[in-house]
Specification:
The complex is a heterodimer of chains A (343) and B (284). Chain A has 343 residues and is an all-alpha fold. Chain A contains 15 helices and two strands. In chain A, a hairpin with a 2-residue loop joins strand 1 and strand 2. The longest helix of chain A has 36 residues. Chain B is 75% helix and 0% strand. Chain B has 284 residues and is mostly helical. The relative contact order of chain B is 0.15. Chain B contains eleven helices and no strands. Classes of the chains: A mainly alpha (343), B mainly alpha (284). The interface between A and B is large, with 55 and 45 residues.
C-alpha cells in the first residue's frame, strides 16, 4: 500500500467513528430518560414556557429533522445554541479553545520530557535504588487525582512560598496582542506565542508564570506511562549489538544512550503521545477547574452548573472532533516515518 | 486461613510482581475494613455540622482538624470511602456483565459482528473518558448507580480489547481445534474451553479498572456531578477544599486526598502485579 492510499483508508475509517460519536451524543441529550429541557428547569415549569423554550432551541421538531439539522450545523461549524441565553455555543468554544490548547501543549512537553528522562535513568540503573524509586514514582503519579495534585501544588508554590500565581491565566488588560504589521493582526490565542510575536518580554514571563503550575500538574500526573514505556524499550535496546559496538568505539556514554539508543524508542513514544492526547484533554478539564484556567474544560464544568445540556453536547462533540483529528494526524506521521506500517 | 498463609508466602516469592499484589491487597483490604468499621470507630458523625470549631487545624481533640462547617475530618476520612467502593464495585460489575460477553462472542464469531463491535468500542476508547462520563452523568443526574453507569460506559472498551486480542490467539490453538473436532458446540468451545484461559487477563484488567473507576468517580464529584452534601465523600472534601486553600487549611484536602491516592494505588499495584504475572506482554 502506498502512503497515499494508506492515508485515504485511514481518513475513511475516521468518518464512521466520528458519525458514531456524533449520533451517540445526539441521542444522549434527547432520548435518555428525563427530558433535558425539563431537567434544565428542574422539572418545575409551565408547559407553555417549556414549549416556547424548546421552539427556540429547535428541540420541538421531529427527532430525525433535529438530527439532520444537527449534522448540517456541525458542517458549518455550528455547535448548537446554549440553553442559558440561546447564544451560539461555537463562539464560546472557539474563544476558550486556545487556552486549553496552550495548556495541553505545555503539559504534553513536560509529560514526555519527565517521562523519557526518568525512564532512561531507570533503565541505566536497572534494579538499583533509583530504578525502584522511579518505578514507584511512575505508579504513584498514576494513582493521584490530577486535581488533588493541583491543590497540593497551589498550597506549596502559591500559598506558602508565594512563588507563582494560584490560578487564572493573566491579568485582565495584559493579554498579549500578537503580531501587528500595518492593518494585519496575527493572534493565536496562545499567550506565550502571542507575547513573542508582540515582542513583549514582560507579558512572556507573566504568561509562563501562569502556565507553569497547571502544566506541571497535568504533565506530572500523566508522565507515568512514558516512564514505563521508555524504561522497557531502553532496557531492550541497551542490550543490542549496535549499542555495544558504539561503546566499543569509545563514544561517550551520554551520546550512546541519548543519541543512539533513545532513537529506537522514538516511534513507540510518538504512538503513545497520540493515544495519551485524549487523556490529556480529559485531565485538562480537571486541571482547568482546579486552577480557574479559562479554557474549554472550565466552560464545560460551568455549563454543568447551569444544566445547559445543549452547550454540554456542543463541547463534548468538539472534544471528539479534536481527538479524532489528532489521532488521524499521529497515524499519518507514523506511517510517513515508518514504512513498515503501510504493509 | 491456615491454608491461605502459605499461598501469600508463595506470592511473595514471585518477585516484584508478587510483592506488588501483596502490598496492593493489604492497602485495599485495610481501607475496606476501615470503611466498614467507620460507624463504630468515628468519634463524631461524619456529617454533623459544628461537631467542633470551624476550620480548626489538627489538634488532640480533632486529630485531622475540622472543615469550614465544623465537621470532624477524621470521621469524614473514615466514612468517606464508602461511596468510592460502591461506585467502583458497581461499575466493574457492569463492565464485566457487558464487556466480557460482547468481547467473547464478537471475537469468536468474527466477520461483521466483530467489525461492528470493534468500531463501536474503538470509537468510545479513543474519546477522552472523563468528558464522556461527564456528559452521561450530567444527563442521568446524581446518584451512585448513575455514576457507576457513566464510568462503566467509558471502560467497557478496555475489557473488549483485551478479551478480543486474547480470544483471537487462543481460538487458533490446537486444543481448541481438538475440542471442535470431538464435537463441542460453538457455545461450549467458547465458554468451557476459551473463557477459562481469558479469565486471568479479565481479573487483571478489572483490578486496574477499580483504580480508574475511583479516580473517575472523584473527578465526577470534582466537577459537581457527585452526590448530595449529606453523604460523606472524599471527593466532596477535595472539591470544597479547593475554595479553602487560600485560608491555608491544608488538612481539609490533604487527608481525604491521600486516602483517594492510597485506594487507587492499592488497586493499581494489584492490577500491575497481576498483569505482569499472567500476561507479561501487556507490560509493554
Amino acid at each position: 500500500m502506498s502512503l497515499r492510499s494508506y492515508v485515504i483508508t485511514r481518513i475513511l475509517l475516521t468518518i464512521p467513528m466520528i458519525m458514531l460519536l456524533l449520533t451517540f451524543v445526539f441521542l444522549l441529550v434527547r432520548v435518555l430518560p428525563g427530558d433535558p429541557a425539563m431537567l434544565h428547569f428542574e422539572k418545575q415549569v409551565d408547559p407553555r414556557v417549556l414549549l416556547e423554550f424548546k421552539q427556540k432551541l429547535g428541540l420541538d421538531k421531529p427527532i430525525e429533522i433535529q438530527y439532520f439539522e444537527y449534522l448540517a450545523g456541525l458542517l458549518r461549524g455550528d455547535f448548537g445554541k446554549s440553553m442559558q441565553d440561546f447564544s451560539p455555543v461555537s463562539q464560546q468554544i472557539f474563544s476558550a479553545f486556545p487556552a486549553t490548547l496552550e495548556l495541553a501543549i505545555w503539559a504534553a512537553m513536560i509529560m514526555v520530557l519527565v517521562g523519557v528522562v526518568l525512564g532512561v535513568q531507570a533503565s541505566r540503573s536497572y534494579d538499583s535504588l533509583s530504578d525502584h524509586s522511579i518505578r514507584v514514582f511512575g505508579t504513584v503519579s498514576y494513582a493521584i487525582p490530577v486535581f488533588f495534585l493541583g491543590e497540593v501544588m497551589i498550597m506549596i508554590f502559591a500559598i506558602y512560598l508565594h512563588l507563582l500565581p494560584a490560578g487564572d491565566r493573566i491579568y485582565a488588560g495584559m493579554t498579549p496582542l500578537g503580531l501587528t504589521i500595518g492593518d494585519l493582526h496575527l493572534r493565536t490565542g496562545l499567550f506565550v506565542l502571542d507575547s513573542i510575536l508582540e515582542g513583549n518580554w514582560t507579558k512572556l514571563v507573566m504568561s509562563l508564570r501562569y502556565l507553569l503550575l497547571p502544566s506541571l500538574t497535568l504533565g506530572t500526573a500523566l508522565c507515568g506511562i512514558f516512564v514505563r514505556l521508555t524504561r522497557g524499550n531502553m532496557m531492550e535496546t541497551l542490550q543490542l549489538d549496535f549499542v555495544t559496538a558504539a561503546r566499543a568505539r569509545g563514544i561517550k556514554e551520554r551520546t550512546v544512550v541519548y543519541g543512539y539508543a533513545l532513537r529506537n524508542a522514538f516511534l513507540p513514544i510518538l504512538t503513545m503521545m497520540g493515544l495519551q492526547f485524549a487523556a490529556l484533554l480529559a485531565g485538562a478539564v480537571l486541571t482547568e477547574t482546579t486552577f480557574s484556567w479559562p479554557g474549554l474544560g472550565r466552560y464545560l464544568v460551568d455549563r454543568i452548573t447551569f444544566r445547559d445540556y445543549t452547550a454540554i453536547q456542543g463541547v463534548v462533540v468538539f472534544f471528539g472532533l479534536v481527538v479524532a483529528m489528532v489521532s488521524l494526524a499521529v497515524d499519518v506521521i507514523y506511517a510517513y516515518l515508518d514504512p513498515r506500517i503501510r504493509f | 486461613m491456615v491454608q491461605f498463609l502459605p499461598g501469600l508466602a508463595r506470592l511473595a516469592r514471585r518477585g516484584m510482581a508478587g510483592w506488588a499484589i501483596l502490598v496492593g491487597g493489604v492497602i485495599v483490604v485495610a481501607l475496606a475494613i476501615m470503611t466498614l468499621a467507620a460507624p463504630w470507630i468515628s468519634p463524631y458523625s461524619p456529617i454533623a455540622i459544628n461537631a467542633g470549631p470551624l476550620l480548626s487545624p489538627p489538634t488532640s481533640g480533632y486529630p485531622l482538624g475540622t472543615n469550614h462547617l465544623g465537621q470532624d475530618m477524621l470521621s469524614r476520612v473514615y466514612a468517606g470511602g464508602a461511596i468510592m467502593f460502591q461506585v467502583a464495585i458497581l461499575s466493574v460489575i457492569v463492565c464485566l456483565a457487558i464487556g466480557v460477553p460482547i468481547g467473547l462472542i464478537a471475537s469468536y464469531t468474527g466477520g461483521y459482528a466483530d467489525k461492528l463491535a470493534s468500531l463501536v468500542m474503538d470509537s468510545i476508547y479513543a474519546f477522552p473518558g472523563l468528558v464522556l462520563a461527564i456528559a452521561i452523568a450530567a444527563t442521568l443526574g446524581p446518584g451512585v448507580v448513575n455514576m457507576a453507569l457513566s464510568i462503566a460506559v467509558v471502560y467497557i472498551p478496555s475489557y473488549f480489547r483485551i478479551i478480543r486480542s486474547q480470544v483471537l490467539t487462543i481460538k487458533e490453538l490446537p486444543y481448541v481445534e481438538a475440542a471442535r473436532t470431538i464435537g463441542a458446540t460453538g457455545r461450549a468451545t467458547l465458554f468451557s474451553y476459551i473463557l477459562p484461559n481469558v479469565i486471568p487477563s479479565i481479573v487483571a484488567i478489572a483490578t486496574i479498572n477499580f483504580a480508574d473507576a475511583i479516580l473517575t468517580a472523584a473527578g465526577l464529584t470534582f466537577v459537581g456531578l457527585g452526590l448530595p452534601v449529606s453523604t460523606p465523600d472524599w471527593g466532596w472534601d477535595l472539591t470544597y477544599g479547593r475554595r479553602l486553600l487560600t485560608s491555608g487549611a491544608w488538612w481539609v484536602i490533604a487527608f481525604p486526598g491521600l486516602m483517594v491516592v492510597l485506594l487507587a494505588l492499592g488497586f493499581t499495584l494489584m492490577g500491575e502485579g497481576l498483569s505482569e504475572l499472567y500476561n507479561p506482554r501487556l507490560q509493554k
